[in-house]
Amino acid sequence: MYWVTPRHLAGDDGALAERIGDTLTGLGWHMWPTSRHTLLYVSPDGLRGAEWILAAYPFELGGLSVAWQLSARPHAASAMTEWNAYFTAGVPYEALADLIVALDAREVPDAGFEGPETVLNAVGAQGWIRDVDCPHATAMDPGFSATVSLGLQPPLVQDADPHPDLMGWQAWAEPVLGTPYLWCASFSASVPHDLVAAFASSLASPVPVPRRTVPKSAEGRLNFVRRS
After folding, report:
1. pTM for this structure?
2. Who contacts 102 (Cβ-Cβ below 8 Å, separation ≥6)?
3. Whether 37 contacts 116, CB under 8 Å
4. Residue ranges of the DUF317 domain (predicted)?
5. What tens digit of pLDDT does each residue of 137-195 get?
């Protein structure tokens, strides 16, 4: 077992389904396998959902298949979700777990009052820097290998807001400029900014994370703090 930094390049250790599943069941969420060979988790109040959808191959972000989808709805009986967030394999499971804990703790999961500066301030507090050209929408890690950015919502990302040209948060890691993405995440326009901030803050955390395997594309960019 190795303890490595930075977290955003550490990968998921091939255990993204298991780690997040453990987090959800630990919070008391109920799980059902579906006919699409996915695993659906629903919070006790029925307002929050998480689904392991890698086997269904729903769509790709940055050339990578989406693995987890989070959602929230205003009423347990509502057929429509208010917002959705999508994460590919390879995303550090610590960041996704911290987002889920924040989502579970919210009394109202489908609305928020914080502005987009909340996200940028969260990563800025961890040493990330704002893009000179887009200081109010984009920030990067000091090594320029990961980015969080507020931009146009990708076409297949679903949100309850029907208006065109919606703006949503995106995040991704690119170990070396021009190489394939390590992971990608996309938040629909109605995801509360403070929830995105919970994910981004954990992503940018300097605290080392344990890994048995690390992504080959990031080996030269990772610091091995210690072995246990």
Report:
1. 0.96
2. 194, 195, 198
3. no
4. 43-107, 159-209
5. 999 999 999 999 999 999 899 999 989 899 999 999 999 988 999 999 999 999 999 99
